[in-house]
Amino acid sequence: MNLSATGESRVNGYLFVLERSLKTFLPADTVRDAVREIESHLRDRVVAADAAPNERQALERILAELGPPLRVAQAYSAERIIDEAVATGRLLPTTRAIWHMATTTAMGALIATGLFSGYAAGFSFLIIAVMKPIFPNNVGLIVVDGLPRAFGAEFPVPPNAVIYGGYWIIPISIACGLAVLALVHRATRQFLMRWRERRRLHAVTVETDR
Amino acid sequence: MSIDNWLEQLRRGSLDLAILLTASAGPRYGLAIIQHLEAFTDLVVTEGTIYPILGRLTREGLLEARWVDDEAPHPRKYYRLTPRGVRRLGEMKVEWKGLTDKIDRLMAAAEESKE
Lengths: 210, 115
Known about the structure:
Chain A is mostly helical. Chain A has helices at residues 5-23, 28-48, 55-66, 69-88, 91-104, 106-134, 169-203; strands spanning 139-144, 147-153, 161-164, 206-207. The model of chain A is unreliable at 203-210 (pLDDT under 50).
């Protein structure tokens, strides 16, 4: 089947949506390669197809068998992003993987919130360590009316509050921050590994009859 | 779990093996792999989602991908097994045969106990 200008436009529209969706998650070179491969698939299918009963219906059948562009993009993203995070353990791919998880399912969003909170707690300890030498009178264990209220910084310090903790809190904060980050990061990678296995089972739709 | 769900999970789990087996016959591009699976198995996959799996198997070093520009009016991406893929496929075949043998023995034992 040779595509008319309308058919070409429909194919280009599909590829455009696919490319836009993939760009949200994947590096530019991976997106180019993926779109090129899907286009190659479509061109092969179109060449082999009968334009019966008409070009439009034949083309829509081909696109339906390929799957909606958003779904194809999601399958690419799931395989790629989580793989990269698990394999490298680097912070940026891991963050992208958690974000992807959070935006894909409700359970993913819940777990991602927990993991981000863990990372935030770890970084907070490190920020305390950095701030202590700069604001020695504002950073430490904040006790208000004899009751500990927070471990962090207050600007300005409330009149009835006392800040406990000297410079010794710096190494302790650094140690706590690194320990929390290491634990959370390890838990994240283990969780992503399990998530990846689960995704592999669900990423591909195998139809019993077509 | 319904029989449909069980069957679907079984088929999904065997898809990596099916793809590696398909690629073991020689270099094939994505659509040819899909058509081969359709011709020789009832593992008919939704076409668009096989490409991410091929990408993953490539990143894992089990497949090697290469674009061929001059074979068709448009470029095609061919996949072939790497030496690591050949080794992995060998392991998977042994495991698969072992598993099916055990299940066969279990089924035979169950049939015998009925009689």
